[in-house]
TrEMBL record:
The keyword Hydrolase is annotated on this UniProt entry: yes
Source domain of life: Eukaryota
Protein name: AB hydrolase-1 domain-containing protein
InterPro entries assigned to the protein according to its UniProt record, in alphabetical order: AB_hydrolase_1, AB_hydrolase_fold, Serine_prot/Carboxylest_S33
Limits of the AB hydrolase-1 domain: 51-319
Pfam families named in the record: Abhydrolase_6
Annotated GO MF terms: hydrolase activity
Hydrolase recorded as keyword: yes
Family, per entry: Belongs to the peptidase S33 family.
Organism in which the protein naturally occurs: Kingdonia uniflora
Amino acid sequence: MEKILRNPKFTIFSPITQLVIRNLNSRSFETLAFEEIRNTSEKPYTSTAFILHGLLGSGRNWKSFSRDLVSALNRSSSSSSDWRMVLVDLRNHGRSAAVKDLDPPHDLGKSAEDLANLVKSQGWAWPDVVIGHSLGGKVALQYAQSCANGDYGENSVLPKQLWVLDSVPGKVSSVESSGEVEKVLETLQSLPSSIPSRKWLVDQMVKLGFSKSLSEWIGTNLKKSGDHETWAFDIQGANEMFESYREESYWSLLEDPPNGLQIEIVRAENSDRWRPDVVQQLESLAARRAKDDSEGKVSVHVLPKSGHWVHVDNPKGLLEILAPNFISSPLT
């Protein structure tokens, strides 16, 4: 079943229950939870972008930004494209945390394969664009790499464009990071699985030294369960995904992107995740000149006045980077 929510500008397709898909891999299984956002135009959509959230987040974190993006693209596109945004809950996150068929290992490879299984199970065309923030950025890179390798079957289609939002493409050691993510994960694992209230959680985290804004954002990942609150994500599975995020490197993909693929890296100006040598390496790759339009290429954008949480810190600036550079959708 599918519940259709309407407002004057958008139609949001929100699955009420997980769809059970049969005859794929010879057994029934559930796929990732998702929501669709597109204009209420009567004409069908012609282009699709997947949006992948970061660690401990969910697709709904990107709902407001997605509305603005799809509106900008459909309003300003010089072509007849009508865009649809698919907000995915990655495994162990959001409503996908309740899906029992997403077997381990909980790593980037399986997370990207989940996207391919979602496409196949729904009978969709393969996405034209994949946008990923932080953890989701590396899932997007893995997805493109696996498509290029033919891992999803001969009928799979490489996206035309990836947007990797404040996600370091190489390995990330704990020594190089600030340790805040590790501290959050450790803290959440130490808390009871049943939380008295959101206010209790925020107060506890602030006492432990976390900022009020971060604590309140963590609180948005609670869901009601009787008289208490429980996590909307699987903390152990999310931790395994984070370990995979730190270990995997996609420099080889950036150094030799598949023909026809545009990889757009967005680095937040005030993010503390970027070493000078990494920034220099990215800029060197972006400076290369493609021999022809069919070659893959890498571009780098800097989002001003923003830390790591790009869609919260400077959503207007992020929109001004994405919309005019979206594949086949130049602003006029």
